[in-house]
Amino acid sequence: MEFSTLIWTTIGVILTLCVYSFLYKDNPFYKFAEHLVVGASAGYYLVIYYYNFIDPNVVRPVFQLEHGGQAIALGGFEWWMALIPGLLGLLLYARFFPKIAWVGRWPLGIYVGGYAGLGISPVMQARVIDQMRAASSPLASIVGPGEVVDPFAAVTNTALGFVIFAVMTYFLLAKRHLGSRGIAAMIGVIAASAVVGYGGYVVLTALSAANVVSTTSILLVVGLLGTLAYFFFSLRHTGLLGGLARIGIVFLMVGFGASFGYTVMSRISLLIGRVGFLIDWIGMFSS
Amino acid sequence: MASSMTRFFERFLKIDRRWIFLAIAIAVVIPFFAPLGLPVDVTPPVQRLYDAVDELEAGGAPLLLSIDYTPATSPELEPMSTAILRHVFEKGVRVIVMTLHPAGYGMAESAILRAAEEAGAEYGEDLVYLGFQPGTSAVILGLGVNITNVFPEDAYGTPLSEIPLMEGIRNYDDIPLLISLAGWSASEAWVYFAHQPYGQRVGGGVTAVMATDLYPYLDSGQLVGLLGGMRGAAEYEVLIGRPGSGARGMDSQSVIHLIIILLIVLGNVAYFATRRQRKLAGEGT
Amino acid sequence: MLRRRLPLLLCFIAGLFMAVQYYVPHHSVQSAYETLLLWLQTLLAFAFLLGTVSLIRVHYHKIRNKAADRGFSLVMFAGLFAMLGLGFFHPSHHAPGSPFNLMFLNVQVPIEATMFSLLAFYVASAAFRAFRARTLEATLLLVAAAIVMLGRVPIGEMISSTIPEATRWILEVPNLAAKRGIMIGVGLGMMATSLKIILGIERAWMGGGD
After folding, report:
1. Residue B8 within any structural domain of the chain
2. Please, which residues have CB within 8 angstroms of residue B134's CB and are 6 or more apart in sequence?
3. How far apart are CA A265 and CA A273, in angstroms?
4. Where are the domains of chain A?
5. B1/chain C closest Cα distance in angstroms
């Protein structure tokens, strides 16, 4: 291993420990690392922006008459097409001079409008139309040939899912909160809803086995409608809309639970990565 | 009368959080020295991404790999770029690497340097590094028209026309698969602006935080596959038969998840035990 | 006119053109589109550098006004100028493995990555202090989270094969349905915002004043 590698890695280790010292309490070592990284990253971004974009697309075409290895003519179309956006970009800096700050709105208008316009059609396609299509495709299979499902997976998945859902839906529909009941009542309620859930599961599995409809498809559609109903604020949440919205809450909470579990996983992974770095550094001395 | 149990729980709830920090620190370190070697199962989203890469032809149309992650999320995403690059180089699949984030520039460069050196891949023939371009949606849309419009030259200043790998590669029509690795909304941007208007096949690798939000895209086929967090990387490592830093982290991950679940349970037990007491005290006065 | 109307007009024209060009495959429209894409990139690059200028101003004033923590502003400048020096003036600044890149990999990467990893400790502490099964909704969330946390690590798979199965079901059914609902809702919101910007109803980007 090269000596310079060891030195650089050791710098990284020291800075890592400076940051971790914050866990004990805020201190100058942490502040040092914090300010160092603010400066270093600003400098890094500036260099990267310059060499990857501004130099090849603005500076060299305008001043050295070259773009992507090809010569361009002074005053030609390509030359102007590099100069104009460059000048517009400079106008953004007018904001630092209060008297002419408003000039900065011209490039900002093009920028804000341009990006807004670019997004409309693809975002509509990606987030709304294709999602609606995907959500409605299982419904189409109700009348068409049913999907082939692995019976074991179907049984375990649906049984578990329905027990959980029966319990939770029962609570929600009864508008009861866990905290206000005794333990015996709680067990009774869970047992009762397990029975209800099991009944629902048997019926739906039978339908599913007969290839009439898959339980998953129904849940996906109901969950989607429920979630949309929950976020639909234009009407009061009563009657059918209220019922749907309450089902929506169940789906949302399970969804947020999944997100939370994954968030924990994510944070822990970051820590593991850093600890791995420290341990590899220790290993450098034994190799 | 407040029982001694309740008093214990009350004090327990007020424990200095630095004890918890210490417990977490110890729990994450120990499995590095005493590995449990727990097996990692492969889930369908990872399998689908692996299959999509595995279908690419050696020496044929290249994979476009956009390394869009920043240092902050690198422990989750770097194992993914390493595993994917190992996979393609082992198969002889050519790869074009780029980034949509300025900090991704250095992350991408270090990932390809390592993988190319290990596999003996030749720059310009087996891989090319285009570098960074600002303006996410404008960049992705621009690549659909003509790659040289967006990247007139590679990251080191060589015009693309002089790079053998780029011969005959004009836009998404010549790229069978694109993978974005990102800890921000880049993967969604690739879906919006490469998949929707150009029908480009897009795969993603994201932090676990983001993974659950992207499941609708997997179900609808807008994403061909998805790696979620370090765990996703570990699964990909299992598929290529080369355990790396993803798989190495799974033991610590297991132990800490158990501890956190335990903390949630303990916190709730203590809370409900003391709450009952608080209520009784409240009624008494 | 020049101060308020012209920026709104430019915004409207740029927005309308970019939104409509998807549906007009004529080559003249397409070449204008390609040009405008490059303009948008250029403006973004210049806009990004605005932030750096602001950063320098803030810390310069701290030092000039002899603020108590001005020492750390000097550290900021040290980091900034070290990176700029290595990036612009070092002879091999553009090559792989340059000191510029080494400074990025061994200063910026460890600090940023470690700062983010601090969250692991706080999430553990929050799990103990804040996550209470007070209501049914909270219980539901906690149970789903616990199943997912166990189901996505090898130890959960060892305890019972049902845990990863349940995790998969949670992710692919209730989670999918809920996230799809949110995705559609947010998508509609994003489009509404874009339209408001293009039509000049949403003008926050213009800032205050006349």
Report:
1. yes
2. A49, A52, A53, B102, C41, C44, C45, C48
3. 12
4. 3-108, 146-271
5. 25
Closest chain A CA to residue C123 = A264
- Predicted confidence (pLDDT) at residue A120 exceeds the cutoff of 80: yes
Tell me the chain B residues in contact with residue C129 when contact means C-beta distances shorter than 8 Å.
13, 17, 267
Domain boundaries, chain C: 131-204
Q: Which residues of B touch A262 (CB under 8 A)?
A: 208-209, 211-212, 228-229
Helices (H) and strands (E) in chain A, counts: 9, 2
Q: Please name every residue paired with B180 in a beta bridge, in sequence order, or none if there are none.
A: B66, B204
Whether residue B146 contacts residue B152, with contact meaning beta carbons closer than 8 Å, is answered with no
What pLDDT is recorded for position A215? 67
What does the angle CA B221 – CA B222 – CA B228 come to, to the nearest 5 degrees?
90
SS3 A214: coil
Residue B268 lies in a domain: yes
Indicate the SS3 state at residue B177: strand
Percentage of chain B lying above the pLDDT 70 cut: 97
C127 interface with B at CB cutoff 8 Å: yes
Tokens of C172: 């692919």
Considering CB atoms only, which of B24, B212, B250 is closest to C120?
Answer: B24
**Facing residue for C116 by CB, picked from A8, A263, A270:** A270
Q: Is the pLDDT of residue A135 over 80?
A: no
Is the CB of residue A262 less than 8 Å away from at least one CB of chain C? yes
The residue with greater pLDDT, B180 or A162, is B180
B39 occurs within a structural domain: no
Are the beta carbons of B18 and A130 separated by less than 8 Å?
Answer: no
Rounded to a whole number of angstroms, the distance from the CA of B33 to the nearest CA of chain A is 9
User: What local confidence, expressed as pLDDT, does residue C81 receive?
Assistant: 93
Alpha-carbon distance of A75 to B55, in angstroms, equals: 49
By the 8 A CB rule, do C29 and C21 touch? yes
Domain that holds residue B258: 4-34+250-284
B10 and B63 together in one domain: no
| Closest residue on chain C to B133 (Cα) | C41
pLDDT in tens, B18-33: 999 999 999 999 988 8
Tell whether C186 is within 8 A of chain B (Cβ): no
Phi, psi of A89 (to 5 degrees): -60, -40
Q: Are residues B274 and B172 in the same domain?
A: no
Is B273's Cβ below 8 Å from some Cβ in A? no
**Torsion of the alpha carbons at A132, A134, A136 and A139, rounded to the nearest 10:** -170
Number of structural domains chain B divides into: 2
* List of chains touching B (3+ CB pairs within 8 A): A, C
Residues B137, B219 within the same domain: yes
The CA distance from C153 to the nearest CA of chain A, in Å, is 9
> Model-level pTM?
0.85
Average pLDDT of the residues in A156-173: 48
Task: Count other Cβ atoms within 10 Å, centred on residue A1.
Answer: 9
Q: Is A148 exposed, middle or buried (0-12, 13-18, 19+ CB in 10 A)?
A: exposed
Predicted confidence at residue B85, as pLDDT, reads 96
